[in-house]
Amino acid sequence: MGASYRGQADALPMSAEQVIAEARKAFFVMFAGLALVWGLQLVNYADHYALSRDYGVRSGDIGSLPDILVAPLLHWSWAHIESNSGPLFVFGFLAAYRGVARFLGLSLLVALTSGLAVWFFERGDADTVGASGLIFGYFGYVVVRGLFDRHLIDTLIGVVMAASFAYLLTVAVPGTPGVSWLAHLGGLIGGLAGAWLFRDRRPRAGAGTDSRQGPGPAARDKLQVRSDHPRADLHKELGELGLL
């Protein structure tokens, strides 16, 4: 029964306090991530981009397979990293604000799908680096996450992001010189898959009450927010918006 209880508890909607706490953690995680990327850029630049040459993903090269996890942190120029930094922070934060642990799993999945797309299908011996594969993965995740999680706010965010940044998809298809469209496409596929794999698992109908144990986890969660609770109105409004 213990395992069953935990499975249902994990599926409960997040409270307002949990959402705020996770958003705060997401901000600092993305800030730290950008600091790492820029720190590596300084080292890379000082060494004439030796890191990008040594740890870039090369198609068909078995030795470069582990570099799939490192290449997204490296860039080829200041213009390269500057163009990636803003979208990386924005889409990364939107992907992470509902759960940093889930976001880390998503990041690993996207890095793998983006890097493997390059490793299997890229032509030539170019070293592919850059965070754009992650950006496309986060973008795809943010656009469709609300549909899988059935959160109104996340669905609206996805619609706005899709409408505002649809032009990004033009560099996820062949034809843009000097751009690894395969890394972009692989990242996008990973983000879309991640939205389904890391979706909220809600309790099945009828699972809220156990005749032997009294109210189930979902029912107990509702009882915690009484009408005289100082944040009762906030919980109600956020719930109606699909945030809880």
Automatic annotation (TrEMBL):
* Organism expressing this protein natively: Streptomyces malaysiense
GO biological process terms on file: proteolysis
Q: Where is this region: Disordered?
A: 205-230
- What does the UniProt keyword field contain? Hydrolase, Membrane, Protease, Transmembrane, Transmembrane helix
Limits of the Peptidase S54 rhomboid domain: 68-199
What SUPFAM superfamilies does the record point to? Answer: Rhomboid-like
Spell out the subcellular localization from the entry: Membrane
The Gene Ontology terms for molecular function here are: serine-type endopeptidase activity
Segments spanning the bilayer are 26-46, 103-122, 128-148, 155-173, 179-198
User: Keyword Nucleus, does the record have it?
Assistant: no
Protein name per UniProt:
Rhomboid family intramembrane serine protease
> From start to end residue, where is composition biased (Basic and acidic residues)?
219-230
